Amino acid sequence: MEEMTGMIPQLLIDGLTLGFVYAIVALGYTMVYGILEFINFAHSEIFMVGAFAGTEVLLFMQSAGYLEKIPAPLALLIAIIIAMVFSGALGVFIERVAYKPVRSAPKLVAFISAIGVSFFLQDAVRLVEGLWKNAFYLSTPTLFTTSINITNTLKMPVKVIYIMIIAIIIMVSLNLFVNKHRLGKAMRAVAQDRDTASLMAINVNSIISLTFLIGAGLGGAAGTLFSVQYALIHPYVGFIIGMKAFTAAVFGGIGSIPGAMLGGILLGLLEVFGAGFLGILTNGVLGAEYKDVFAFAILIIILIFKPSGLLGKTVREKV
Amino acid sequence: MMKMKKISLIVLVALIMLSVVGCAGATKAADTGTNGEETNIIKVASVTPLSGSQAAVGESIKNGAQLALEERVAEFKELGFELQFAPQDDQADPKIGVAVAQKLIMDNDLLAVVGHWNSGVAIPSSEVYAKGNLVMVSPANTANDVTDRGLENVNRICARDDAQGPAGADYLYNELNAKTVFILQDKTTYGQGVADEFKKQFENIGGEVLGYEGITPGESDFSAVLEKIRVSKAEAVYFGGIYPEGSLVLKQLKEKEIEVKFIGPDGMDSGEVIKIAGEAAIGMFYTSLAADISGTPEGKVFVENYTKMFNKAPEAYSSYGYDAMNVTLNGIVAAIKEKGGEKPTREGIVAAVRATNGFKGLATNVTFNQIGDNTEANIYVLSFEEAKYPASVAKEISAKSYLK
């Protein structure tokens, strides 16, 4: 028991960090689903491309010597902004090339198209990095080395604090944008009823593009944060994160923006606490490797009682 | 979950297509057979992961094998045969490995296989090779079951897990003076296999195992498990797995300021460890079945030729790819002589390779015992003294004493 309570604060920090990354990626899934009712399975690869873009920026700054001259948070900010622009543009491009032509076809067609894009991006990044650097594992330059000692055993690395702050800023501003801004309202209108929205002089195509721009941009930001936190990326890194983030989006209620945030953070915490405690709780029968089983079992139980997810609304029949 | 489904669907389609192509190839070969025409082509395949997260090491083995083969093309020409190299990609995936194996046994000119990298892929694939009487010489598969199944066609030039794990345990307990350990493994045939053998020996010689946990390959966050290591107060961590996860564990241990000794198996033997873990790799130990060849004159020539050909420095297992290919080619030559200069049968090659005795290789000498294990293999304990690959050898142990 003492063993468990000793671990709780540190696990809380680790779980929140992981959860924030899941949450930002989950936003990309949920936004596209909200508008188009289609799961953009290429989002995990947009996340990966964003991670590469951000990391390459940091690596460039390192080799050019800028990294020592400018403060680390500023360097991180620059990397995130460039990664967001890059992956946002990529998201819009993918939508135009791979989804828009099949928008009127059955949903499954767009789904297959997304799978194709996903494979394409994995191997494209591998090819480019392979040709350019002769290796496709990128190790991220270390930005923050210090950590704050909260107690003797509890440490909070500075980078975790920055990651959390940036994640919270992103989520709050996205919420404000969607709820208060004119374009955000237009987005919600398109989500509710595309045809009626177009009758109200909303340009549906550009709103869809905007959704992809924001969703993919968030993926890019998440990728950079991930890369800074875990320090190693490769072209296949999006797969597991993407699956978990998609799960988080369903968990919180797919289509709901606050739901994705809540789902992501809860999934991160469940996973980390599962890994930490399963062995102790079951007396060593189930080890840390069952953390996903644990997290998903809880997810299934919640979905049985709340099929639309934690914050999801039961969709009313569209008239 | 949907993604898993989509992948298995694609694999299924690929399998169907492969078997169609394979059948077509077989009937065609049979046709030429009835006409009495036989090609003088001898193909030797290498099967390693050339894509995916383990592609770097897979490619280094393939390159070693390719170098050995190309050096001997002229020798085969004199014997009247055209020697060809057929590199294959198993993507470190058992399903793909079996599909590739099915394709290979259908090719009548293909007479031998050098591979694989992952034991979990080698075991099911070698069952398929056995059906086709195709010889397999493994440069790097350490799982016991690779040879313990007693297949005629399966041989390996490296030592076994039940040697590598115990050697690590002996070294940790006796030389590094750690009496308590926390074991992490990646749930693969290889990782869990070597971790279990380590555990057995460590407990046998009086050490205490304070924890045993599995991690998921491909994940990036191991923080919760590392916290368990911290509270367990173990003196050392044994990591049964491969470098992408192992290096991250090293890095995150350092970030969390958990001070433990770290020892792993040869899955940690890669230059990528330094790239990923950086300074955190200093002072870590790993056992390796691969010799450091850079000191010997033959080794220097090899490094030079390799670098010239592939524009990259060889990795630890490149020389094993090279030796495995040479053992294979020697077997083929012996089988050719057995048949009086005619193209050998696969059965002939299987017997000739197994009879290998006293082969002097670049990285290891090779003498196969009755189940295809190499009785002359060595185990090395290495350590990073600075953040630079390759690591320096701390101790050399003969694997023969661990061979049952």
UniProtKB/TrEMBL annotation, chain A:
Cellular component aspect of the GO annotation: plasma membrane
Keywords recorded for this protein, A-Z: Amino-acid transport, Cell inner membrane, Cell membrane, Membrane, Transmembrane, Transmembrane helix, Transport
Designated name of the protein: Branched-chain amino acid transport system permease protein
Organism domain of life: Bacteria
Homology family: Belongs to the binding-protein-dependent transport system permease family. LivHM subfamily.
GO molecular function: L-isoleucine transmembrane transporter activity; L-leucine transmembrane transporter activity; L-phenylalanine transmembrane transporter activity; L-valine transmembrane transporter activity
A family per Pfam: BPD_transp_2
Major location category of this protein: membrane
Its membrane topology: Multi-pass membrane protein
Any single GO BP term: L-isoleucine import across plasma membrane
Compartments it resides in: Cell membrane
TrEMBL record, chain B:
InterPro entries documented for this protein: Leu-bd, Leu_Ile_Val-bd, Peripla_BP_I
Signal peptide bounds: 1-24
Alphabetic keyword roster: Amino-acid transport, Signal, Transport
Matches recorded under Pfam families: Peripla_BP_6
Keyword Signal assigned: yes
Entry's Gene Ontology BP terms: amino acid transport
SUPFAM superfamilies referenced in this protein's UniProt entry, alphabetically: Periplasmic binding protein-like I
Leucine-binding protein domain segment(s): 42-382
PROSITE patterns listed in its UniProt record: PROKAR_LIPOPROTEIN
Family statement: Belongs to the leucine-binding protein family.
Protein name: Branched-chain amino acid transport system substrate-binding protein
Organism: Anaerovirgula multivorans
